[in-house]
Protein 1
Amino acid sequence: MNSVLDLFRLDGKVAIVTGASSGFGAAFAEAFAQAGADLALGARRADRLEQTRERVVARGRRAVAVPTDVSDPAACQALVDAAVCELGRVDVLINNAGIGAAVPALRESPEEFRAVIDVNLNGPYWMAQAAAGAMTQGGAIINVSSIAAIISLGLPQAAYSASKAGLIGLTRDLAQQWTGRRAIRVNAVLPGLFETEMTSDWFAEKFDEQLPRIPVGRGGTASELAATVLFLASDAASYITGQTLVVDGGRTIL
């Protein structure tokens, strides 16, 4: 009889991770490699992406790195095609690529707003379309949203917050379309306050005032979010779909 811990393994599976050149994406790639998955990695920075690929290979897994701008549907399809061609299949998609913006609403240009929506909301949709077509044996999609989708953190983030809130709606709709018909589960995670390359400036300016509102008493670590995403991608979460899982140390309850 298999151990319950076996449900968390991804042996024989192939996962696609976008935004894999640094931060959460790199942490996800290493965690999935430890769980037995092979990886197709996408990001815009080819040099950093290759470093992530090398770390995956060092853990004994296969990996392919494909420079990818997720706002381009053709680039999304190319990443999925590379996964199938080089690794043989697609079982998991982690929609992690994202950009931030903190521009006052009265000064934000149409180009600035659209750029955030293109990467943070449209990109996950193009990736999900491409990946679902390749998930012939079912699979799991995890969209990385943010607690900025449901609360304000005191910054002018209209485009970012709108894009991350949109991901919650996208998650629910794709789950109802694909879970029953295609055996593809679709869920979202809402990270709270994690220090990454993208958030380092915000942490330097704002984190101290936020800390009293985090019951756990600290910011999160990339490995903690990676463990949550791994859970949702694995058979341990086989009865979970269309859900948003908040990973914030309690920030949104205060």
Protein 2
Amino acid sequence: MSVQKLESQIDARKEQPAIFMFPVAFLALALLSAGTFEFIPSWIMRDLVDLPHLWHIAELGALAAILLAGTTLGLITRPKQKVLLAQFFVISTVILAVGIVPFDVRGAVLLPIGALFVALYPARRELLRFAPNGSISKPLLILTLAIAVCLDPIIQREITWQINGANDPHAQFLH
């Protein structure tokens, strides 16, 4: 292999994180603004129309602004070293799309966002690797399972309400 070819491959590898960084920074800002779009008028300006929906608006705002935007902000620097965070983002977009699309087709926009993220990620093959780097935290696993058991009846009830409540305003707004 020639020295020039090797240098060009090294340069291409160095550019990949920069190519990834700018769209991810834009995505983080878009998610942050989407998460605060309804939150500010509802919670800070106290729009009376939104009073019955404050919890749902806070939930959706936290999902977009904190969970997804926070994840993408964490990936702006050294994304190759944060594979688990990247996997979390991709899996989150797919799960959210699957959960929202049956009730609102606009949720399908999450799939191309996830696909674009995967296409731009500098270490795409690493996204398919699910081998843990360290040991599993048993206290955290127990706590997660306990919370899942407690939340399961609520989740089942609200999914049923969402499916049956086509004329209910809470169901219409994915609450």
Protein 3
Amino acid sequence: MTSVAGSLTRRLLTAALLIPIVVVAVWFGSAMMVGVLLGGFVLAGAWEWAGLAKWPLLGRCAFVAALLVGISHALITDIGLMYQWMPALSLVWWLSAVVWIVAYEREKPVDSWFRGRVAHVVIGILVLGPAWIALLILHQDPRTGAAMLLTLFGVIWGADSGAYLAGRVWGRRKLAPRVSPGKTWEGVAGGIVAAMVIAVVAVWLLDLGVGPALGIVLLCAATIPVSVVGDLTESLFKRQAGAKDSGTLLPGHGGVLDRIDSLCAAAPFFVVGTQLLGIGV
């Protein structure tokens, strides 16, 4: 119990430090500022991803440098047309990840899936790059961009926190015991409840019409399971690597990748959803 309380305390302190920085930057900052800030998290995640892939130091540096070049070019071109399609493309990867997770849980011979340096390079780019681009696309709208981006962050943070607390208190039935033994259906339910409360409050504050407000709430509800896929996918890669956490940078949370894995799957899905609904983007 003491270790659980200590872990929760560290999580809360880390969140209390980082969340205000992100919120202030998103609300008051320029597109360039938001892109640089979120790009920093992506590059830290890239470093940890290369570590999970067990690349040598030179390979890790090269991977991070390649993403840095891509981020810089995207910022200079203001997320031009060559980048706009990437969130939709990444959904193909996340659909493949669902198949991988289900097959692994059913004890199919899939341990060798997505191994090898080429696979890790491609998947690493598809996990990190489109998520970053999706967040900036969401932020671009001059009227509702900042509010929509904070809504997405709030929904994902709420789902993560609600799942953590509900799982600790009521968790009994395992969600995916082979992939991530600590996750439970009760935790998922708690995350959904917390996230939907945040979504409803957000659309109320946005003061949208009934149609757009309902569309955003339903989109948030659909985004939460997608965020769980992101979490489980990283857990499966960590299982392949024999690692508990992706890193140690964030006390109580593990690595940066451990904190953004849900968002990496959720952000492209959410942005594509807003585009299909014609809301804010």
